[in-house]
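User: Before I run my own analysis I want an independent prediction to cross-check against. Here's the chain; please return only the structure tokens and, at the end, one sentence I can use as a sanity check.
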Amino acid sequence: MMQDTDFRLVAASAQGDDIDELQVRTLLTRMTPEVERDWAEQCGVTRTRHPLTVDFAEFGAHERFIVPIWGGDEQLGTIWLIKTGFSPLKEDEFRAIDATVTVASSLLQARSGGTARNARESVFRSLLASDPASRREALATAVRSHGVTRGPETVVRAITVAEDAPVIQRAALGQALESTARQALFFIGELGAALLFIGRHGAPENIDALITSEADRAGVALKGIGSAALSPHETDLLPVAGRAVATAAVVEMLPELGMSAHADNVGPWLFLADVLVDPARLQWYSPAAHTLIHDPDPMRRQTVEVLLDTANHVRDVCETLHIHRTTLYYRLENMPPVVKEALDNGMQRSALHLALKLATYWESAGHIR
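Assistant: Structure tokens:
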């Protein structure tokens, strides 16, 4: 059960089948009965900053494990868990309780109109506010007072997880990452299925390993990690966060990129991901690309794409495909006429190259089969 500071019931869920009279009366009246409430106050429930155990045996009730919920210097409520008849709490359960306290603190502050959140956290949570002026003011304050620097050393990371991941598990992951990588990851909010963090650039491989490890411990399915840097002239962090989320989406769509990527390194994919049109129109952009995509011989498409990727450097093409120069010439000579025409025309060649990349993205997204 979760209660406010007046012992009024805020939320409750089942905890086994053996509920006692105290639980029943609290659920029915939406408040802890007066006698038990006085006992809880004598035991320090309304004063403690740490979890404590309260024995309600003299009231014919089970022992409770009570966790206080604080916001800064203001107590906001408590979480009550029955201990009798249950095995000792495990590490992952304590992590879940800790995350519940974090989520509950924000909800109870909003419910009471409180402002107990510390200044730094309040500023960072406002970086993604719905009001543009509030976002700009928050970023200016973060730069002025909280160690954020305008430039590539400040990075926003988007960590995309399964959309059905429970809110407590998401909160547990965010809290764990903050506590273990304070300088590199500070939670600032969510966009869709992405958890967003701001921090210093750091060593990407070390941060990626940490994120993967903590996601496993929190039981959250990790889909991708995207990062984007704050430019010296940007006054709003939301577009940076948007780039990070888009980069994570590209990572999710294209497994060959690995688990993470930086926006600067996947610019063409971000451009292509923004093309929200019917894949059937691909033949409008490049009939040559359409022909290669649907060619029964996949070697033709691979050959042309490698040729374009290497800027027509024959030796590089042959090394990549592990073929002889004569074989390459033979393949090019036997390409469909529409493909040969495109390769001989600068504009058509550019369209062909981009269209093949776009097709790869659409295939990964399942729009072309």
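Sanity check: The chain has a mean pLDDT of 86.
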